[in-house]
Amino acid sequence: MNVETTEINGFLIDAFNQYDLEEGKTQGICPLCSSDRKAANKKAKCASYDWERGLGTCHNCDTSFQLHTYQRKGASEKIYVRPGVDTIMEVDTKVEGWFKSRGISKTTLNNLRVSEGMEWMPQTGQGENTIRFNYFMGDQLINIKYRDGRKNFKLFKGAEKIFYNINSVVGYDFCIIVEGEMDVLAFHEAGVKNVISVPNGATLNSNNLDYLDNCIDYFEDKTKIVLAVDADEAGQSLRQEFIRRLGAEVCFLVDFNGCKDANEYLLEHGAKELIKVIDSAVQVPLEGVSTLKDVEDELKDFVINGFKPGFQIGIDNFDKIFSTYTAQFITVTGIPSSGKSDFVDQMVVGYNKNYQWKTAFASPENHPVYLHAHKLMRKVWGAMPKSSEIDGAKWKEVTEHVNDNFFFIDMDKYNLDAVLRKGAELVKRKGIKCLVIDPFNKVRQADASGDVNVYTLEYLSKIEVFAKKYDVLVIVVAHPTKMYKDKDGKMEEPTMYNIKGGGEWYDASYHGLLVHRDYEANTTKVKVLKVKFQNLGQNGAEAHFTWEPRSGSFIPAAVAQDSPMPWD
Asked: How far is CA 27 from the centre of its chain?
């Protein structure tokens, strides 16, 4: 069977027929078990081949295998450590008995290449006998999860994070995502093979899904993704992030009916009932239409706890007067050279430090990109990097952090629709939580003509829809078009009404901030012009800062210290 293309389902083909099977035949031997069968059965046609999907299924050993070998198009640029490919030792009788008590057979352990062996565990400070969950991508061992008898875990240090059992989803148009390796084993035991697990569980308020970034190509052809994560608060937070990244239109939700996870459900109800849980998965509620049942959990939380606290940047005097939620947008204004862009940079660096949010910038005025990257580096570093520190340990640490968390949208010609499309792509592929448009005046809609108020309303409506759909905080920097001097000749502080189409800006923005520099006092103040929800800030409140030149950061004026310039 000849294949003209080298790409299938979003993957590049390294080898079309990795096991040298009879091409074009739909049935034949199994490359996994036929060689180990009795002599009379070695050539028995026990497997089915689907060459288009690149998937084989054996009816004897009840396993699936890839006919092709694949190469990821979007593979990470990072260099990772790979575990040594030791002989995978089968689990001994004692460990096998423990798995049996969890409803997992030896056949399943062998199929998923679960092993055991001694490993030093940092939690105990000594070598322990561990269960090893081996993370393969194709035939390559990418990572190992170790678990000792005290339920301590660790991943192989320096290895790439990927989904456990990721090979199993190739060739399928749907897959199931669970929160632990034991849940993968449970589904496998029930006969469901295309199941993958996150490598490090769920953490509340963390959306750093680097394993999804590393495996995003595997989901390009999926029309259905069943989210069967744990029923606790952290698991539900993880579920929402998957919906945001992968798209509500393909995500289906599982209810374990009082059980914590798939393994617990298997033990309590059995394999057949576990399959029924997947069959009864419901699609994420229709976008744009909600009923009380859709928001009942949030309603209960509000009744018990009131408003949730907003997200803060980590500077005390500013945090006292302003915070925000995601799925909103902030308008930042101020006269030229007042420090607007610098303060916005400091905001997103603060959100990254506090909540691990990633940010994309559409900033045509912040060019060339290396200078903008340098400004972010200084804020993360807390100082001006010296030439002698290039390629040192801290240089590598900070540059890698900036590289992984901040992205610069670079276009020949900026317009809003193109920026939002790229923003949506970055949500999916990198998990951004912030989008900065700086300035609005240079990121226009393609059809920016006619009535300025109508245009502004359409512009801001698109931003609001994007923010809500992807649960992203959008920060828009907008220059005022009308500026006036007071009786002393000083430039007056602009408001949101000084922006072109000002009334629409004030009405549509969730929040508004003014950044204004007092050159005589050598201070910069940030003033809250608007907060939509009063629990998030104080209208008219101010925070005063001094700019610290070495780190390029704003520090509260009350504690600011004189500092020499970087070149002194």
From this structure: 41
